Amino acid sequence: MRINEFGQAIGDALPDFTPGRLPAIERIEGRYTVIERLSKEKHGADLYQVYGPASPADMWTFLFKGPAHNEAEWDRLLNDFLTAQDRFYYAIVDKDSGKALGTFSLMRMDQANRVIEVGAVTYSPALKKTRMATEAQYLLARYVFEDLGYRRYEWKCDALNQASRKAAERLGFTYEGCFRQAVVYKGRTRDTDWLSIIDQEWPAIKERFEAWLDPTKMVNKSNL
C-alpha cells in the first residue's frame, strides 16, 4: 500500500503498464486435450452431437444459447459463434479420438485494464468431470496469464447455478459477490455470481493444476 502526498492510501503504481492483446489461439495441445479455434469444417459435425437434439435437456437451463433442434438451427448458431465480434470461441477436443466434445470462449475483454472472462462453457456429458475438462481450463488460463499477460481472469454464472460456481471454485476462482438482478434471459431474472483469479494467484494455482494433471504424482484427484 502506498500513501500519497495527501496522506491517502492509493494503489501500487504500474509504470510500464500497457493494454492487453486480443486472443489469437489457433491450437494449444495438452496431455489429454487440445484447444482449437472453433471451425465449422473441423468441429461442426462433432459439436452438433453436443448442441443438437440428442443433448440432455437439463444442460441448457443456465446457458444463454442452445440447444439446436435440427441441423439448420445448429448451422445458424455455429455461424453466430464464428462471427461474434465480442468473444472468441474454442473447441475442446479429445486428444486421443480427435473428437470435439465441448466449447468455451474468451469474452468481455477489457484490454485497457487487462481483464478477460472465460464463459459460454458448454460440455457434453462425455467431457464433464474429466481430466480433459480440467486440462482445457488450465490451458486457457495459462494462455491468458502467461501469453496475453492479463491481470484478472473472470468467471460469471447464474447465482442459482451452484454446479458452475463450485466448478469455478475447484479451478481456483475466488467468489467475489453477487450482482443482483444483473441479467434478464430466457424470460426470467438472473442474479449473477462473480468469481476471479488474479495474476498474483496464478503461480500457485498453476502448480496445483499441474500436480493434479500429472499421472505420476499422488495428489487428491477430487480437488479439481
From TrEMBL:
Report the coiled-coil segments: none
Q: Where is the N-acetyltransferase domain?
A: 49-191
The record's section on PANTHER family has: FAMILY ACETYLTRANSFERASE, PUTATIVE (AFU_ORTHOLOGUE AFUA_7G00850)-RELATED, RIBOSOMAL-PROTEIN-SERINE ACETYLTRANSFERASE
Q: What protein name is recorded for this chain?
A: N-acetyltransferase
